Amino acid sequence: xxxxxxxxxxxxxxxxxxxxxxxxxxxxxxxxxxxxxxxxxxxxxxxxxxxxxxxxxxxxxxxxxxxxxxxxxxxxxxxxxxxxxxxxxxxxxxxxxxxxxxxxxxxxxxxxxxxxxxxxxxxxxxxxxxxxxxxxxxxxxxxxxxxxxxxxxxxxxxxxxxxxxxxxxxxxxxxxxxxxxxxxxxxxxxxxxxxxxxxxxxxxxxxxxxxxxxxxxxxxxxxxxxxxxxxxxxxxxxxxxxxxxxxxxxxxxxxxxxxxxxxxxxxxxxxxxxxxxxxxxxxxxxxxxxxxxxxxxxxxxxxxxxxxxxxxxxxxxxxxxxxxxxxxxxxxxxxxxxxxxxxxxxxxxxxxxxxxxxxxxxxxxxxxxxxxxxxxxxxxxxxxxxxxxxxxxxxxxxxxxxxxxxxxxxxxxxxxxxxxxxxxxxxxxxxxxxxxxxxxxxxxxxxxxxxxxxxxxxxxxxxxxxxxxxxxxxxxxxxxxxxxxxxxxxxxxxxxxxxxxxxxxxxxxxxxxxxxxxxxxxxxxxxxxxxxxxxxxxxxxxxxxxxxxxxxxxxxxxxxxxxxxxxxxxxxxxxxxxxxxxxxxxxxxxxxxxxxxxxxxxxxxxxxxxxxxxxxxxxxxxxxxxxxxxxxxxxxxxxxxxxxxxxxxxxxxxxxxxxxxxxxxxxxxxxxxxxxxxxxxxxxxxxxxxxxxxxxxxxxxxxxxxxxxxxxxxxxxxxxxxxxxxxxxxxxxxxxxxxxxxxxxxxxxxxxxxxxxxxxxxxxxxxxxxx
Amino acid sequence: xxxxxxxxxxxxxxxxxxxxxxxxxxxxxxxxxxxxxxxxxxxxxxxxxxxxxxxxxxxxxxxxxxxxxxxxxxxxxxxxxxxxxxxxxxxxxxxxxxxxxxxxxxxxxxxxxxxxxxxxxxxxxxxxxxxxxxxxxxxxxxxxxxxxxxxxxxxxxxxxxxxxxxxxxxxxxxxxxxxxxxxxxxxxxxxxxxxxxxxxxxxxxxxxxxxxxxxxxxxxxxxxxxxxxxxxxxxxxxxxxxxxxxxxxxxxxxxxxxxxxxxxxxxxxxxxxxxxxxxxxxxxxxxxxxxxxxx
Amino acid sequence: xxxxxxxxxxxxxxxxxxxxxxxxxxxxxxxxxxxxxxxxxxxxxxxxxxxxxxxxxxxxxxxxxxxxxxxxxxxxxxxxxxxxxxxxxxxxxxxxxxxxxxxxxxxxxxxxxxxxxxxxxxxxxxxxxxxxxxxxxxxxxxxxxxxxxxxxxxxxxx
Lengths: 771, 295, 158
Known about the structure:
The complex is a heterotrimer of chains A (771), B (295) and C (158). With 771 residues, chain A is an alpha+beta fold.
């Protein structure tokens, strides 16, 4: 083959259009006759909707329609929960509120006008008669005996609860020398991509077919559910994703607006555009991360873990939507992490509250569980007077145990760790960061009143999810290769990665490959981009499709040369008859020859193309160690992150440059969670952080350069040997940074159990009365 | 997020602008740089029927040394203030503070007058004007008047100006030769509004004791906090060593009454008031001693 | 209904005359009236920096200006950076150093970087981080953007 693309730091094919401002995001699209929508949203966290008066709004010049649920549906659909658990109670959301609202911002009516400004003028004039009800601003309040029930079927406001367990937990805790118990809380925060949500829907005048452009992450599922919930034939629905300005999981859902806008388009027979504004985004995008952990660790005298048990309370918001159970599932199965935990019992409880519904955000339960576990390990290390690195080394799963069956089955997969050397990863990180040297500096600094801290996090992430991904690879008569993928990236550079895979398989230059994503009209089946799945699922599907194309080209060349396939060798991208240099056909020539009407071997379909579905639910797991050094300023509680080091193992890498970008980007988000970001609700369920000044995203000054060291333990469960990497940074950083701050102040007796560690919070911890 | 509909005028003269304000009063808003006003309009937190764009009143954009100190026209961009050597020499406190105001992109268009009139209690320039003892000149239909900074800031986004008055300029008085200045601010991210900031001026007598002091804080109340009386009592006539400054800072901590909000609880703001005051006073005193002080 | 105002302005060297209502934001005007959708909108309250453009040679947040304010001005947007079909050296540097992922913040970032590099030679990484602190990025974690700016300093002859 030609230049090896696998593992190469290739510049991205996506870049030029994006850099020139020529790429199209959903708000960049305009259709003739397009109207603009705006939503009337509840100002109350919890209320009955008594009536909706729309006459004044309808009279606003430029307004075309003002519609409520009853105007659009006789029998309104409810958005289903897709991964179902036995204990799940129905607490489903309709596209617009029927008679009750359950979070500030929940949509009650939609206005359609000639532009957004006029639509908002009309929104201000819609009179909704609310009867406010007691809000449930927290899971604790929601679970109190006698609290108002948000959904009839969910007693105690528990939407679901289930337990995972294995081994003899009772016995482990009985014979343990040490039992360490602590409660941890992670705050509510979410992805906040720079591009808010957006959707355009239009019907085609002749066929009536519905086309939807959406800033999303799973177009085929979007199509299937939209069709099912709107009661139309799936064949009549096409979903296309243009460029998406960041997704991070929060655009994987069927949102209420995703059903209203197409319905309005079908009703008015006009294209309808809705672009979420930033305030709406904070109020109504799916939220995540808010979990409370009550955990216990049973340890032998030397620090070996004998068992773990506990309970997780997950604050789910006012409804469970399509993926509402996933965060809870990955949290309760993620607690043991990369450690050997011989016995385990944990229950997760999904509690309904008057907040925006929760759903996966980068890590989806992984960051939460990792944070609680890694904090607990540090607490255990402190109580046992063992160094936290030593405690981890003692308990990390050794490489000879691979493949390691955790005995835990989440809603995404049976968690079997396929490959990796976790202790070596931690050792490498400790050595590179000069852990021992830091401890000396820390002691010296303390004598001067300076608070330095170092935080460790060893984590594992589920690095893809099934059930399949699709790829179609076609070579045309000019030798150009088109890849059509069911993946739906939002900036991950997957086009470049897939082009690299194809370039290797077909021995073509990269610039001869173009990649098409995220269009249900181009490929019939697909799953989408979330759960770090692109490299594994889309990559493997593409590789196998390309291999089939290569095989086909070989067989066609053999047929045309009247030889057998074994007599064909590929030289510089052309199929050559062995020993006869004059008998050679380029890929372009073969593409042409494969067209219908040409000569092909018996049974070979026309077209130099292949479609492949890579079907599996056996997924790889990626591993990493993050080590963070911080300094805490005692006078202000300010935290400076001085150094950040990563050892990362995501199996074979297609493009290390892209891998590193994913790691650093994820780290910024996890760090934001540890130090800055929080979706704050007050006791009335009002959101206090609904703009970018009050919700603090990390800036360029909030994190240092990240030093990344790669380990590659190829995955045996997919043909590329790759593992996903997208979520790792976000999973580990929250934990590593929190541990670093905790380490900086632990000697004062302060214990870190909650985040974000804003300056005021750290200062309070430093100045709290000793317990 | 789109503003409500409004009528727009761009008067060519100050008189025209004032006449428009007289006509529309509470229903009109002045648009200068727009960095503070436009977000309010986009959020529909302000819904004026008329917006009076004063960009054409170029006579209000100037930086002019005067016998008393420095006069800056209300329409002067924050970027111009940042680059001005007159400001650097004659009002180094303002020079130090201006770099903390927003970001380069907002300083390019934001005006000094806009920030003062917007009167966000966490903003830097109101506190600086208070510490300096600045005077603000406004014009209304009844003529011009001068309002001392200590009378100007009334509360959250509220000033002593009437709805029909236009800010013309701010006079920044010179402090005695050798006065030390210091502006410090604590915020979580650069460019944020401060959680707490402090602007300090310290002049020393020949014997090294404090002859004159000015202190104002942003972020501790609904309006910039005038700390001058409290620290005067603690510092005047004394050598500003660590202990004396610490006492002054402790007095400030006791004097401020901040509220809690999503960014910081009240007790923490109170504590930061002490910390920032101490740093600002120490910085100013240090500069006064070392002769780095300006005019 | 408010009256409209006729404005004339130059964008990327081309003159445009349009009638606009006063409340039309400059960001909206550039994107929808002129069809130059390279300038993106991230927050509409002037914090994220995504909509950064150049007005009269100085960076400005397009979501914090009304189109009527831009009457008589000269504006540069991301579409005005590159010459012909190629890439401006700053864009080329971002391409080489993986300075973008989803690309949504990129146009605003490029304009901020252009202003910074117009005034600064041989910046340190720390100076670069300060210069871009007013432009939020949610994908990259900024490290590759800093590298891109340092590379742009080398590539851009100015």
